[in-house]
Design brief:
about 240 residues; alpha+beta; Glutaredoxin; Glutathione S-transferase Yfyf (Class Pi), Chain A, domain 2; 2 domains; four-stranded mixed beta sheet; FAX/IsoI-like; Glutathione S-transferase; Mito_Protein_Transport_Metaxin; transferase
Length: about 240
């Protein structure tokens, strides 16, 4: 059986990491049996989560895990899509993972109130004499990566505006469809769901979340995906909360 290593529940989400969420939903899409274990990034071959163990092999990075599933188990996440549509889903996935994701990181890690509420607790189990230093170092490294991503080079309101343009693109693509590409979920739906749910979780307050909530088809999409793939998770529907 496949073992999926992730952070686990937290921040009002069934899985803290959008990338682990992506892989977990894709495992569910493929109908593959798996068990889930908590881990921290240093345990991974690439120093990041998720990674999986499958028949003695460790595969890290959600994109490479997807490729492994497709090769080994013969599951096509984009079945029914033509060549142009497959190219479009790849472009949307890159936009989500290299733009929208970093806006989420800024809201969680760079905002001091949200950092104190959420990520700072990753280090609660560390020895007291090094705990605060570990927190400061981690926040500094994430803030540095946020800067390198490009979004962190802008004023706070400007980086939100750029992120909202990407959310707008997803909203337009989704339109009134149940999934990004039509009536059937594709691999990129797992990616989009993980990132948008991470922004919309009521656990954190942010301008990014406030702006994202204005896209009613995206909030309904997260509600729909949550019910489909995490039916036992206690999620308050965003449409209902609004």
């Amino acid at each position: 059986m496949i073992t999926l290593y992730g952070f686990g529940q937290g921040f009002g989400l069934p899985e803290i990491s959008p990338f682990v969420t992506k892989t977990e939903v894709q495992l569910k899409m493929a109908g593959l049996a798996y068990r889930k274990e908590r881990a921290m990034p240093p345990a991974s071959p690439k120093g990041q989560l998720p990674f999986i163990a499958d028949d003695g092999r460790s595969i890290a990075d959600s994109t490479f895990i997807r490729a492994h599933i497709e090769r080994k188990y013969g599951f096509d996440f984009d079945a029914g899509l033509d060549l142009q549509q497959r190219a479009q889903t790849w472009a949307f996935e890159r936009m989500i993972e290299h733009h929208i994701y970093w806006a989420l990181v800024g809201a969680r890690w760079v905002d001091p109130d949200n950092f104190a509420k959420g990520p700072t607790h990753f280090f609660d189990g560390a020895p007291e004499h090094v705990r605060e230093k570990l927190r400061e170092d981690a926040q500094f490294r994430v803030a540095e990566n946020y800067l390198l991503s490009g979004l962190g080079r802008h004023a706070p309101d400007d980086d939100i505006e750029l992120a909202v343009r990407s959310l707008f693109a997803l909203s337009v693509q989704l339109a009134e469809k149940p999934y990004l590409m039509g009536d059937t979920p594709c691999g990129t739906d797992a990616t989009a769901f993980g990132a948008i749910a991470g922004i919309l979780t009521p656990f954190f307050d942010s301008k990014l979340r406030e702006r994202a909530e204005q896209f009613q088809n995206l909030t309904a999409y997260v509600d729909r995906m949550m019910l489909q793939y995490y039916p036992d998770f206690a999620w308050t529907p965003l449409q209902q909360a609004a």
